[in-house]
Specification:
It is a single chain. The chain is mainly α. It has one domain: Up-down Bundle (Four Helix Bundle (Hemerythrin (Met), subunit A)). Helices cover 61% and strands 5% of the residues. It contains six helices and two strands. It has a two-stranded antiparallel sheet. Strand 1 and strand 2 form a beta hairpin. The longest helix has 31 residues. The radius of gyration is 17 Å and the shape is globular. The two termini are 27 Å apart.
C-alpha cells in the first residue's frame, strides 16, 4: 500500500532499467494499485457495488481497469479480441461483486499487464496497430500510453465514487 511518506512511483527512482515510455506506463500501473488499495480497501461489498446518483460503482471501475488494459495490450501485441474478452467486457457492470475478489483480480491483472508492457521493445513503439472493429489506426506506443492514461482516468473515477460512498456512510 502507498505510504504517505513515499512520493508517487515515478518519483522514487525505480525501474531505471526500463526505457522511459514503458517505465512511465509501469509507474502509472503501480500508482493505480496503490491508490485503489488506499481508497477502496475500507469499502464493504455493498458499498463497492453502490452507484450513487446512478454513476458507475467502484466495482465497475476495478473490473474495467483490469480488463480494458488486457484488451488494449491485445491490440498492441497485434491481436484482435477473443470472444471471451468480449464476453468479459459485457459483464463489467454486473452487480453483486465481492470486494476481496475484485481487488485480487485487479492485483493479479496489473502484474500480468506489467509483464506484458515490459515485453515490448523500444523498436516496437512506432509499429502500426489497428483497434476495434473499425480498425482505427494507432501505434504500439500509443496503445501503451493509453493503457496508462485510461487506467488513471478510471482510478480517479473509482476514488471519487469511493469518497462519495464513504461520505454517505458518515452522513
Amino acid at each position: 500500500m502507498n505510504k504517505p511518506d513515499l512520493p508517487e512511483p515515478w518519483l522514487r527512482g525505480t525501474l531505471t532499467e526500463v526505457p522511459p515510455v514503458r517505465r512511465a506506463v509501469l509507474h502509472a500501473l503501480e500508482l493505480a494499485r496503490e491508490d485503489l488499495e488506499r481508497w477502496c480497501d475500507s469499502l464493504s461489498d455493498d458499498e463497492i457495488n453502490y452507484a450513487p446518483g446512478g454513476i458507475a460503482p467502484v466495482a465497475f471501475h476495478l473490473r474495467h481497469i483490469a480488463r480494458s488494459a488486457d484488451r488494449l495490450l491485445t491490440y498492441a501485441e497485434g491481436g484482435q479480441l477473443s470472444p471471451e474478452q468480449i464476453a468479459v467486457m459485457k459483464s463489467e457492470l454486473d452487480t453483486g461483486a465481492r470486494k476481496n475478489e475484485l481487488m485480487a483480480e485487479l492485483v493479479v491483472a496489473l502484474a500480468k499487464i506489467a509483464r506484458r508492457v515490459r515485453a515490448f521493445s523500444e523498436q516496437q513503439l512506432g509499429e502500426h496497430r489497428s483497434v476495434g472493429k473499425k480498425q482505427l489506426p494507432t501505434t504500439v506506443g500509443g496503445l501503451l500510453v493509453h493503457v496508462a492514461d485510461h487506467t488513471q482516468r478510471h482510478v480517479g473515477q473509482a476514488i471519487t465514487t469511493a469518497k462519495i460512498v464513504m461520505a454517505q456512510r458518515r452522513g
